[in-house]
Amino acid sequence: MTRRTTTPSAARLGLRENAGQFALLVAVNALVGGMVGQQQTTLPLLATQEFGLDGYAFIFTYIAAFGVTKAAANYVAGTLSDRIGRKRVLLAGWLFALPVPLLIIWAPNWGWIILANVLLGINQGLAWSTTVTMKVDLVGPKQRGLAMGFNEAAGYGAVAVTSLAAGWLADQFGLRPAPFLLGVAYTILALALVLFFVRETRGHANLEAQAHANQAADLTSAQVFGLTTWRDPSLSSASQVGLVNNLNFGLSWGVFPLLFASRGLEIAQIGILIALYPAVWGAGQLLTGWLSDRWGRKRLITTGMLTQAVGMAVIALSGEFLGWAFGAILLGAGTAMVYPALLAVVGDVAHPAWRGRAIGIYRVWRDLGYAFGALVGGLIASTLGLTFAVWGAAALSLVSAIAAIVRLRETNPR
């Protein structure tokens, strides 16, 4: 049976030509990010203060569970979006989000928190990967970096705003249930937007495919996996850098709240520090996505990883609020340089016929970084202390930057 490749007669590529649907998908991705932000400040504190957990490796299991399931869901999202369409996968992702905040609110033990994060990982993998693919479909090759800048700025800006809001709610009303009512509202709103207003975008991908000749279109999933994981220098470099980048985020998610709390900061202050990282990350991508279309992808990616290494070192060396804030700003700036450029690299190289799978596989490796960050951070923190875990992330960021300098090719079609 041959898959249909018809293109809607009204389909046009470009950000301006698809402004309404593009803006709607930006809003949906902001809600995806908000689902992570509701728990960033609160869950490590919930583990120690309400559940009495004291082993870092065990506490961070919820981040590892999130990262592994999100990575697997990314692969499923890429495969299904190429086969059955983008909108159905996006809707399924939000259905998995429904129980997440309720499980956390009612959790009698830590196992419920881990289950909630398994479902959250599925939600993030299906929903975030699909909004990325849909935006790339809509804008075409000329504004790919800018499109990814908008997408990631919305998602991680929402992580920051929701982290800050959840920290304030926890400080005013307690760790449960107030912060997680945000997730209930986000899920209901997202389901309504996707069900009634988001439109399918595979027709736009088919339109671009008619003029796309840089790769063969009839690749198997195994071939796409090989290209994205090791065979293609640019795709595999993107996967490697993405993994280390999210290792930093996963480690910060678990380590930073406990590190700051151990030095006497209040929950509201911790919320501000936790929000700074994704706030700078989110806002900065509006600029860096645009710059990657003009300056190229490689210089932003390598400079961004070096900046993250410095940011981690500053946090490890500091012992007070202002130093930690400066380190978080550096981390956010470095991540802003990297994130949209990496997605643009995958969009540059991948043929529209297997773009969804390539994005999904790249995001498999990238989001396994959450799990590695949680496991590595937990083990180092348990044996050597929280500060040494931060130093470990700084060293890995430096190694990642050097590897990208050596292996990553410039992929900007300009």
Automatic annotation (TrEMBL):
State its location(s).
Answer: Cell membrane
Top-rank taxon of the source lineage equals Bacteria
Q: Which residues form the Major facilitator superfamily (MFS) profile domain?
A: 22-412
> Where mainly found?
membrane
Topology versus the membrane, per the UniProt entry? Multi-pass membrane protein
Annotated keywords: Cell membrane, Membrane, Transmembrane, Transmembrane helix, Transport
Q: Where are the transmembrane segments?
A: 20-36, 56-77, 89-107, 113-134, 146-168, 180-198, 241-261, 267-288, 300-318, 324-347, 368-384
In Swiss-Prot or TrEMBL terms, this protein is called: MFS transporter
Classification lineage: Bacteria, Bacillati, Actinomycetota, Actinomycetes, Micrococcales
